[in-house]
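Lecture notes, continued. The same structure-token format from the folding unit now serves as the input rather than the output. Read the line below as a description of shape only.
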């Protein structure tokens, strides 16, 4: 569960601040990504637990409403506290609970042949990194990795083993700068340096939701729809999930990034971490139209 507060500015150091509006919602990388797959009618498997206790009640309720499978785990659930400024920028404090634990049985339930890739978040490596690393090393699937903060980036052991698996990386500007440790003068150089670590595509999501993509050969910056951002929470996770979905639907990199930008923009104009229910049909129509146009172009080329 996420307790969110809107403030007139993000606090500095030990500054006290009074939110103008406070409410509870469900957030987290797995939640945001699972909802993208749900909204766009794409199959997925979510490895995430709700935990128990008062902080698990809202996630359990919302998961049931949206038919998202999140098994209960017998450990007290944690909570995230998020502050949002008038431009949608966020700062969070995470108190970890049972939702960050993994049961080997949950991993064993996943059938590798039924999946096209694995998307994992840095927060999943917090409690038992060896368990998850061993699981990823046993797979023969592409890995997509989103650090979701600095904690995992500070664990050189985890990063070394993870980068050996050549994961596609989805980073924020700040995460990219942290990985470079002063070795890059701009984001283009940052993308090239990070690519040298993984030898796999790198995506750097900019603060305005544009995205820099580099795969060793191609470098491009995908634009984003102009929005007055309300809350950027969940936009990054939605962007990555939408990109993976679009690629699996046959779109090329440029098209997938375009759709991902549209999806992320839709999240950013709400005070929730997923798109409004009223926007779900529009997002499905956008993706369907892009797929149809791609299929037509491919058919014409074959003639």
């Amino acid at each position: 569960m996420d307790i969110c507060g809107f403030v007139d500015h993000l606090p500095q150091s030990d500054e006290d601040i009074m939110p103008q509006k406070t409410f509870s919602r469900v957030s987290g990388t797995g939640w945001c990504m699972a909802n993208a797959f749900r909204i766009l009618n794409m199959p997925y498997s979510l490895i995430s637990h709700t935990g128990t206790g008062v902080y698990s009640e809202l996630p359990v309720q919302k998961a049931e409403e949206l038919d998202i499978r999140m098994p209960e785990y017998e450990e007290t659930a944690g909570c995230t506290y998020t502050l949002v400024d008038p431009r949608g920028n966020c700062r969070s404090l995470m108190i970890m609970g049972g939702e960050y634990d993994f049961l080997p049985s949950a991993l064993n339930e996943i059938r590798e042949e039924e999946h096209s890739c694995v998307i994992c978040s840095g927060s999943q490596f917090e409690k038992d990194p060896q368990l998850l690393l061993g699981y990823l090393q046993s797979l023969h699937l592409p890995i997509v990795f989103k650090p979701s903060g600095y904690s995992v980036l500070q664990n050189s052991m985890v990063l070394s083993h993870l980068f050996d698996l050549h994961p596609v990386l989805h980073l924020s500007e700040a995460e990219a700068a942290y990985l470079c440790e002063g070795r890059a003068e701009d984001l283009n150089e940052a993308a090239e340096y990070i690519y040298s670590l993984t030898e796999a595509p790198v995506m750097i999501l900019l603060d305005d939701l544009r995205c820099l993509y580099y795969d060793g050969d191609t470098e491009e910056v995908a634009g984003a729809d102009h929005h007055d951002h309300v809350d950027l929470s969940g936009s990054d996770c939605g962007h990555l999930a939408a990109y993976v979905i679009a690629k699996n639907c046959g779109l090329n990199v440029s098209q997938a990034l375009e759709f991902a930008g549209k999806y992320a923009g839709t999240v950013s104009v709400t005070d929730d971490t997923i798109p409004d229910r009223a926007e779900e049909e529009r997002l499905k129509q956008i993706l369907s139209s892009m797929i149809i146009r791609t299929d037509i172009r491919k058919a014409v080329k074959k003639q």
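Point for the exam: The mean pLDDT is 91.
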